[in-house]
TrEMBL record:
Protein name: Fe-S cluster assembly protein SufD
Organism: Nesterenkonia sedimenti
One record GO biological process: iron-sulfur cluster assembly
Span of domain SUF system FeS cluster assembly SufBD core: 179-400
Encoding gene per record: sufD
Residue ranges of the region described as Disordered: 35-58
Family: Belongs to the iron-sulfur cluster assembly SufBD family.
NCBIfam families: sufD
InterPro entries referenced in this protein's UniProt entry, alphabetically: Fe-S_cluster_assembly_SufBD, SUF_FeS_clus_asmbl_SufBD_core, SUF_FeS_clus_asmbl_SufBD_sf, SUF_FeS_clus_asmbl_SufD
Length: 430
């Protein structure tokens, strides 16, 4: 029951839910609820007639396994307009893994896991492969198509792992193509941390799908520590079970081009899911992160926070954040935020948060984005206390990014990433 006598910032509030002006339980009352339009947006391929709820809705974004529906992008598509397509050509061409099945494959995979973990492989038609991840762009389709045996890592029900499951992905042949599909499954009421570390040089397409069982507590940490000549396109999709907890942390420091899509949806009610990201771009680097939270069931919460720093001529970062609260997702509580710190002239950060709400019966939803230079007040405060300017700048950057590092909650990783950030700051003397 909504209490219409109490108002906060002009909005009627009830005991637990918010009533948003312009919305009802049926969602926003749009002037034109449905439009019959020519649609060639995103990866649909051939122009076709399609009835859509609203132009550009994330709910209408095409996904699937048919490569024909994802033609080579030309840069005019919304999905690709920020991306350097010439540099991504090595991962967008329809090519299998170079030297597949031999010792000369361009990417090496090593798994270290506690004894309770089951490690095997899955063909394309073997569940749970392809039950969670739905390719959303051409690179993801190609990774699936050209990976015959997906790496399958399964944590049994009720298992609580004291050690991380470590997956080392190392490129050993610069310029050669590697495709991968990894399936991570955490059983009911299990607890696990998965660490994927990318190093070396290669043209790499990597899909990761994560199935989080009911009541499970799962962290996935993806580290992009590539060499300067590496190209990486990836899609990470998770499905979060009833009353489960899921956290995905992406840290991108290396690579000439990294384009990572990170998404999750819910299997039932009562779940908490989070996505965190940290990136630091230097001259010539393009680091692009796209997130999608699909609130498809009621009474779940989500939080997204990505932070980035840029330094050097032509350093480029992109963050695109989508949150979709569907009609059925009453009781949703969601927030997303992106912050960028530009350290030098010539660097550019693009940040686009998007929020779609199809029901007004929610706990709360919001988004924010900010991009700027140093806060001169912070520098003045530190320098006034005898700290040299270069050291003061380093302290400000470390403080800005440390919030994300602390979300990892793996002490040895946090320490090594702090060292990586120190090295990044020394490149341009910041």
């Amino acid at each position: 029951m909504t209490n219409t006598e109490e108002k906060v910032a002009g909005v009627d509030v009830g005991e637990r839910r918010i009533s948003i002006p312009g919305f009802t339980e049926e969602g926003e009352q749009l002037a034109a609820a449905k439009v019959d339009t020519e649609h060639s947006h995103g990866g649909l391929g051939e122009t076709q007639r399609k009835t859509v709820a609203s132009a550009g809705s994330r709910a209408n974004r095409h996904t699937g396994f048919d490569l024909a529906e994802f033609p080579q992008p030309n840069g005019r598509e919304e999905e690709w307009r920020f991306s350097p397509l010439k540099k991504l050509a090595g991962v967008l061409s329809d090519e299998p893994t170079a030297n597949a099945g031999t010792e000369d494959e361009p990417v090496d995979y090593q798994v270290k896991a506690p004894e309770a973990v089951v490690i095997s492989t899955l063909k394309a038609d073997q569940a749970p492969r392809n039950t969670v991840l739905q390719p959303a762009d051409r690179a993801a389709v190609l990774a699936t198509k050209h990976t015959e045996d997906a790496l399958y890592i399964q944590v049994p029900a009720d298992a609580e792992l004291d050690e991380q499951v470590k997956i080392d992905i190392t490129g050993i042949k610069a310029g050669l193509r590697g495709n991968a599909h990894i399936v991570l499954e955490a059983g009911v009421n299990s607890k696990a941390t998965f660490v994927l570390e990318h190093r070396g040089s290669a043209n790499f397409n990597g899909n990761v799908e994560i199935k989080v069982g009911d009541g499970a507590d799962v962290k996935v940490i993806s580290l992009q520590r590539w060499n300067d000549d590496a190209i990486h396109a990836g899609q990470h999709d998770a499905e979060v079970g009833r009353d489960a907890s899921y956290k995905h942390v992406a840290v991108t420091l290396g690579g000439e081009v990294v384009r990572l899509n990170t998404n999750f949806r819910y299997a039932a009610e009562g779940a908490e899911a989070e996505m965190y990201g940290l990136y630091f771009a230097d001259s010539g680097q393009h680091l692009e992160h796209r997130t999608f939270v699909d609130h498809n069931t009621p009474n779940n919460t989500s939080n997204v926070l990505y932070k980035g720093a840029l330094q050097g001529e032509s350093a480029r970062t992109v963050w695109i954040g989508d949150v979709l609260i569907r009609k059925a997702a009453e009781g949703t509580d969601s927030y997303e935020k992106n912050e960028n710190l530009v350290l030098t002239d010539g660097a550019r950060a693009d940040s686009v948060p998007n929020l779609e709400i199809e029901t007004g019966v929610i706990e709360g939803a919001g988004h924010a984005s900010s991009t700027g230079r140093f806060d001169e007040n912070h520098l003045f405060y530190l320098m006034a206390r005898g700290i040299p300017e270069d050291i003061a700048r380093q302290l400000v950057v470390r403080g800005f990014l440390n919030e994300i590092i602390q979300k990892i909650e793996v002490p040895e990783l946090e320490e090594s990433l702090q060292e990586d950030l120190e090295n990044e700051l020394k490149i341009h003397g910041n």
